[in-house]
Amino acid sequence: MSENVAIVIVSHSLDVARGTADMVRQMVGDEVRVGFCGGNPDGGLGTSMPDIKRCIESVYGPGGVAVLVDLGGAETNSEMAVEALPEEWQSNVVICNAPIVEGSVMAATEAAGGSDLAQVRATAEELSP
Amino acid sequence: MSTQLIARLIDATAGSIEANAELLTQLDQAIGDGDHGLNMKRGFAAIRAARDELSALRLPEALNKAGMLLVTKVGGASGPLYGSLLLAMGKAGAALESNRAGAVSMLSEGVAAVKKRGKSEVGEKTMLEVLVPVLGALRQGVEGGEATAALLERIKRTAREGLEASKPLRATKGRASFLGERSIGHLDPGAQSSCLLVHAVCDVFMAEAA
Fold first, then answer.
1. A74 pLDDT exceeds 80?
2. Where are the domains of chain B?
3. Sorting pLDDT into bands at 50, 70 and 90, what band is B97?
4. Strands of A34-38's sheet in order across
5. Span B3-209: which CATH code?
């Protein structure tokens, strides 16, 4: 189980991130580690690079981490967070170009089946328009 | 590079962002999500709060530190974008002399970092509408041996023209791209904040040169 790809959900809204994580857990159980974060450093809508970094670190394992984001700032902040991780982790953390709720659920479903990071990402990104 | 200069740059940029936060918010409400003013204000307030610490550093290290503050405190896309600009300028500056040619190389690296971070080029209605022509004007002036005061005036004019040129563009990057055609006819908030910052920095150097 610890080898499964982990999921990190990054939304501008902590409520959206938490709610998405709840949906993932209900659908795929505890097979997959799920982290979530949201809100700017003042607690308003937005994202926080240090929060995202901590969130990735909290679920990181050898299987890697798929990060699902909502809007622009969540993506750029997530990219900065990945670049701030230890170098040997960086290629093992990917930001998926997918809708946050559906992408998280699909990615977690794929991860729960033991798929590798590339496959988890591909499954999530099939949902992109 | 005097320590006073760093403090003046902080006062001028943070002051301008604070004074114009409402304008940035209004522009962003028209074509974005309305958080640009508040986000920039938060980021530059953090830089201002670190004024004494930053002023004690050499310029490249100060830029580096200020860039990290923007990345960690802003909360929107502008944090990583402006943060990458300052981080890249600081990184480049560490290996350069603090002269006019060094300034060209630093800004060149900074603008390249913004393009990379935003996966964007000029013409997509972003802060690059200002930064790219400003870099061109700086490079041209330095290579042509233009007097500093005249060069700074021309850079300010170029920034203003770049901002105005963002108006008719259709956004294809960032939140404004969701609006498609409806983004046409609005100034880009990121171009506006870049113009404010370029003007603030030029004014400091003008006072310094006078």
1. yes
2. 3-209
3. confident
4. A34-38, A6-11, A65-69, A93-96
5. 1.25.40.340
Answer for the pair A60, A93: CB distance below 8 angstroms, yes or no.
yes
Domains of chain A from N-terminus onward: 6-125 (3.40.50.510)
Whether A14 and chain B come into contact, CB under 8 Å, resolves to no
The string of pLDDT tens digits covering residues B6-24 is 999 999 999 999 999 999 9
Alpha carbon A16 to chain centroid, angstroms: 13
Q: Please classify residue B143 by burial: count the beta carbons closer than 10 Å to its beta carbon, then call 0-12 exposed, 13-18 middle and 19+ buried.
A: exposed
pTM of the model: 0.88
DSSP A98: S
CB pairs under 8 A between A and B: 63
The predicted complex's ipTM stands at: 0.74
Name residue A97's beta-bridge partners.
Answer: none
A80 to chain B: nearest residue by CA?
B80
As beta bridge partners, residue A6 has: A65
Q: Which residues of A touch B117 (CB under 8 A)?
A: 76, 79-80
